[in-house]
Design a protein that fits this description.
The chain is α+β, with helices and mostly antiparallel strands. The protein has five helices and eight strands.
């Protein structure tokens, strides 16, 4: 089993470090309208007044307003299916780290990126 964590926003960090342009539109009113910078700052100040240090960036059912998401157990993923090189079509070994995005080392070492892009595009159906 592995754990997945939701992102959260440090309220003080946002108030101290974000300018008005960065603050605008980050938070929403209850009806979904984006808040302007002043409204967002006031809403974050209200959260601090409630004693909160962080707020969730997405819905989370295991959230602590002092420390953030406490994690969600997830089953381990199944191994990824074997992949093929985008240029030559040969299967990539599971330990091979393709460079870049799906090419085997043999293709990368013998061809330019321009050539790889053309070959990859010509293979698409």
């Amino acid at each position: 089993m592995s754990k997945m964590y939701h992102l959260c926003l440090d309220i003080r960090g946002a108030l101290l470090n974000w300018n008005d342009r960065e603050m605008r539109g980050v938070l929403q009113h209850d009806d979904g309208r984006p808040m302007n910078a002043r409204e967002a700052k006031n809403a974050l100040m209200d959260e601090i007044a409630k004693g909160r240090k962080v707020i969730p960036c997405s819905p989370c059912d295991n959230f602590d307003y002092q420390r953030g998401c406490q994690g969600h157990e997830e089953p381990d993923d199944q191994p990824a299916p074997p992949r093929d090189c985008s240029a030559c079509g040969k299967p990539l070994p599971p330990t091979d780290h393709p460079f870049p995005s799906g090419y085997c080392w043999e293709c990368v070492s013998t061809k330019t990126m321009d050539q790889l892009g053309r070959e990859s595009n010509s293979r698409k159906v």
